[in-house]
Amino acid sequence: MADQVGTCAICGTATATSRRRHARYCSNACRQRAYRQRVNEPVMALDSFIGRDAELLRLTGLTDTRMLTLVGAAGVGKTRLIKEFVGSRATLVELASATDVTRACAAALGEPIREPVLSTLVRALAGRETLLVLDNCEHVAAECAALLEPLLLGCPGLTVIATSREPLRVPGEVLVAVPPLSITNAVELFIDRASANQVGLRLGDRDVLAALCARLDCLPLAIELAARLVTVLPVKELLARLDDRLELLNRGNRTAAERHQSLRAAIGWSYDHLSADEQHVFRCISQGPRGFGLDVAVQACDLPSDRVLVLLSALVAKSLLTFTAAGRFEQLESVRLYGRERLAEQFAGDVPGGAAANLKVVRRGPAPAANH
Ligand SMILES: Nc1ncnc2c1ncn2[C@@H]1O[C@H](COP(=O)(O)OP(=O)(O)OP(=O)(O)O)[C@@H](O)[C@H]1O
Ligand SMILES: [Mg+2]
């Protein structure tokens, strides 16, 4: 049995110590941080990194993989995880605002942008060991795939790790799903960020904090945005107001990307990139319960079953929906609230459904879009 006697050399948290072994660090995250301090690597972030031991371990076991994509929902922590994992040993290409992926990669690698850019890049990287991180790829997934296939074929020393809400679908791609934080880590993150927003704050009952984080789907972005509100709302009241989270959670870090300024913007970034039919299905399924089967979705969407299945699978691929081991589809609560908001907008405020057990049929708007 392990006793809680030691303390982590990095963060001071109690560590498990058995008779035979003394744990110097409380987690893989702290072990990695200690390593970086030893080799004097620059820090990757100014605020603390929490949890993710299992994911870091999984990534460590995949170092032979040449094309890895971290996939997960908006604000779940894909970018933060990969930055913590690679430290400064990779070239990071931020693609959220990029339109030309090849040029963005050449610029990040410090290569001259000479036409044809792809061949120039292949020649430059062919004889080197390079670790390239392509961050926030979902809106340029096709461009990434078109670049990466010839690049990986032509440059045997190249390894690519991508983060995306959607797989890139390049041959050889290995997908690592990034789930929400565990409830324990989610509470830890909330306490950490809330305490930074108001030093000395008493947050109170742990059960209330756990309920708050669970309703925020244990999504780091939502938790960080909610923690901003502790200066104006007791946690219990914040919990009671979470149906209005899309209005309330809107003060991101000033230096964060536009889509991380609010929860609505973060989910909207995915919604705006859906086809019209995908948007239709997304709005319809958001009326009902958190989990549902295909039959319920077909009834709600007023479309043939095969078509609904194709559209649901696109939403799963784009991390707006999950398919559970129990064979049901599930939406995060924040994502569902976003869908309801878009539905309310479509019907000027008259949202059917509420917490109803069954979805109601929503006819499509007057101008159904072409299928993508
Ligand atoms: N494990 C963690 N510990 C501390 N903070 C975290 C953790 N994971 C994520 N965060 C914070 O949560 C916010 C969102 O994380 P991140 O940008 O990594 O999400 P993402 O999955 O890449 O989102 P997107 O799909 O929009 O690109 C950031 O401010 C990040 O620093
Ligand atoms: Mg990201």
Query: What small molecules accompany the polymer chains?
Result: adenosine-5'-triphosphate, magnesium ion
Element pattern in H and E: EEHHEHEHHEHEEHHHHHHHEHHEEH
**What name does the CATH topology of the largest domain carry?**
Rossmann fold
Fourth-level CATH superfamily of the largest domain? P-loop containing nucleotide triphosphate hydrolases
Mean residue pLDDT: 87
Please compute the radius of gyration using only Cα atoms: 22 Å
**How many β-strand stretches?**
10
CATH class of the largest domain: Alpha Beta
CATH architecture of the largest domain: 3-Layer(aba) Sandwich
The helix content, as a percent range, equals 40-55%
Low-confidence stretches: 351-359, 365-372
Number of domains: 4
Q: What overall geometry do the principal axes of the alpha carbons give?
A: globular
Taking the sheet with the most strands, its summary is: 5 strands, parallel
Counting H and I runs of at least 4 residues, what is the number of helices? 16
The N- and C-terminal alpha carbons lie at a distance of: 57 Å
% residues in beta strands: 5-15%
Structural class based on helices, strands and sheet pairing:
alpha/beta
Which strand order do you get reading across the main beta sheet? 4-5-6-3-7
